[in-house]
Amino acid sequence: MSIAPFGAALDSVAVHYPTSWRMTQQGTVARETGGTALDGATCTFPAGAITGLLGRNGAGKTTMIGLLAGFRRPTSGTVRVGPEGYERDPWENPAIVSGVQVVRESGDVMPDEKVGVTLRHYGAVRPEWDADYAERLLDLFEVDTRKNPASLSRGKRSALGATIGLASRAPLTIFDEVYLGMDAPTRYAFYDELLKDYAEHPRTIILSSHLVGETERLFEHVVVVDRGRVLLAEPAEDMRARGTSLTGNATAVDHLAAGHRLLHRQELGPTVMVTVEGSLAEQEAAEAADSGVQVGSVPLQDLFVHLTSTTAQKESER
Amino acid sequence: MFDGPEPIYVQIATWIRAQVLSGELGEEEQVMSTTQFATTFRINPATAAKAFSGLVEEGVLYKRRGLGMFVAPGARQKLLADHRKRYFEEVLDPALTQADILDIPVADIVDYVLGRTPRSGGGAATKEK
């Protein structure tokens, strides 16, 4: 019997870290400046979908994940996680958090014990744990189970994390930048396994990343966070339709681009390539075809860069 | 694969239609499952499913419970009729407009068309016999 996929929602969530003092190993006191990690974030992570949680470094992705997993409480606002229709506050709620598996790059493993000990731990705490599948994955990723996680390379530790995430089959599985340490073949093997296992065992998956290029086609839904705010939360198809690239003769391109907000402009001699917000109307598309302007899609990666860098500009203008 | 300007599910549908048209996918033949599609092309299974449900609505594919998606009987004929209608509007018209721009006389185009040996004797039409 498997548990229904969990949905998750944040409603006007703010997280402020207070300024604190910390004792260093040298015995001196260090001041840790607090700050605002999330500032009125509202978004949902639909049950049963693969959602890309995108944001630049320090945007608030990891804080958001911590909230969903019940690692911390928000300063204000509400967090709800659970099967559709039964979403609850995950804080100190064992029924919810036993169904949430977070995989962080730091790795939630027992560093000084053999890999097998960590796996047995997850087998005990995750009701849906599949030990055979974990073994197959470790074999695939070539992780030596007789070693301690501490003595594994960064890439192999990431692969161990990925294995824990997949084999736990948790109704909400969150991968927080796990694949950063992996080499390209291992990353692709991970994406393939993720898609295959997700298709066979539907559940909710959140992949956080700032490396959008490789992963964008895995997403059904995307949430983009920037400076503690949710910039957008929508189906990936909608986000793709937010931008159009136009390439061709400068006059023709600029004429077409005039009615749209310009995100990016690049000149290549007499040819220009622009990225504009939104998609072209039927009439504009016909005009583009007549004047030999090539209309293309914009990779999510580029849209993400444009969207997050324009908000950065706006902030500095204030 | 599937990195054109249209949404990915539209591109998948176009690709399957093309396969049915060319005869690569025969009628009553099974189509890749959404899972196979997802893992082969590294796309979200929901995206593939969206393409499939559109094709079911069009009558190109049909679902056999517990077995998967199959090419519907008569799908190729239907697509042929549809694409033939659109050929003049979408393919030939722009080509002739381009010929106008280049000042190519109509007689030259007619000569070219008449002198051109049809590929494998009229394409797929002979295949049906």
Automatic annotation (TrEMBL), chain B:
Recorded superkingdom: Bacteria
Coiled coil: none
Key word Protein transport present: no
Domain HTH gntR-type: 6-74
One of the record's GO molecular function terms: DNA-binding transcription factor activity
Keywords attached to this entry: DNA-binding, Transcription, Transcription regulation
PROSITE patterns: HTH_GNTR
Gene3D superfamilies xrefs: Winged helix-like DNA-binding domain superfamily/Winged helix DNA-binding domain
Protein name: GntR family transcriptional regulator
Organism whose genome encodes this protein: Promicromonospora soli
Lineage of the species this protein comes from: Bacteria, Bacillati, Actinomycetota, Actinomycetes, Micrococcales
